[in-house]
Amino acid sequence: MGKYYKIFMLITVISIVLLTYISYNNQQFKNNPLSLDIVTKIENKKNKIRALIYNKYRVDINIPIEITDKIGDNLFGLATFTKDKKIKIYLNKKRFKENEEYMIDYVLPHEYAHAIMFYFGDFTKENGGHSKRWQDICLALDGKKCDRYVNHNDILIEKVRF
Ligand SMILES: [Zn+2]
């Protein structure tokens, strides 16, 4: 009896320690900006994409990227065009936790392709902005998966006047 009790207590204690550790980690992630490692990876990818854009389209544009937890949970990223014609890319901070490689290699080129479309004045609504032209740009920017048939709305165009 004593022996089983000790084993039981040991398992309980280990579980509590593990749970505390996991919850601490979650809290850390929630309260802190992304690690320097991830931020550096994003910055490197951004520079690579910028070079690809220059090589392909001969324009040097610096599109700001913001890591945020304010966009919908279902979104990985968002490309926006504001009333004052500013283009910006948002990446969902919460989604970095699951898979940072996916965010950097798949989501970033995907959103950049939307941003470039805005830059070229192409505000197509075809497939939620995922037109053939968008796909070509996404692939040119080394996108790992430039699927045109995605069922999410990840572009936000505040006002477009021609
Ligand atoms: Zn998209």
What's the level 1 CATH class of the largest domain?
A: Alpha Beta
Number of strands: 4
Q: Strand pairing plus helix content: what structural class?
A: alpha/beta
Topology order in helix (H) and strand (E) letters: HHEEEHHHE
Question: What oligomerization state is this entry in?
Answer: single chain
Q: Major β-sheet, in short?
A: 4 strands, mixed
In helices, the fraction of residues equals 40-55%
Ligands in the model, by name, code or SMILES, are: zinc ion
Distance between the termini: 82 Å
Sheet with most strands: strand arrangement? 1-3-2-4
Q: From the alpha carbons, calculate the radius of gyration and give it in angstroms.
A: 21 Å
Known CATH architecture of the largest domain:
2-Layer Sandwich
* Principal-axis shape: elongated
Helical segment tally?
5
Taken together, the total number of domains comes to 2
Note down, in words, how this protein is organized.
Helix 2 packs parallel to helix 4 and helix 4 (100-119) crosses helix 5. The model has no long low-confidence stretch (mean pLDDT 89). This protein has a four-stranded mixed beta sheet. It is of the alpha/beta class and 162 residues long. It has helices at 2-31, 36-57, 93-96, 100-119, 132-140, and strands spanning 65-68, 77-81, 87-92, 155-157. The chain folds into two domains: 1-32; 34-157, Zincin-like (2-Layer Sandwich). The protein has five helices and four strands; from the N terminus they run ααβββαααβ. Strand 2 (77-81) and strand 3 (87-92) form a beta hairpin. It starts with a helix and ends in a 5-residue tail after the last strand. It is elongated and about 75 Å long. 52% of the residues lie in helices and 11% in strands. The longest helix is centred in the N-terminal third of the chain and has 30 residues, at 2-31. It binds zinc ion (ZN). Zinc ion (ZN) binds at residues 110, 114, 129-130, 150, 154. Zinc ion is lined by residues 110, 114, 129-130, 150, 154.
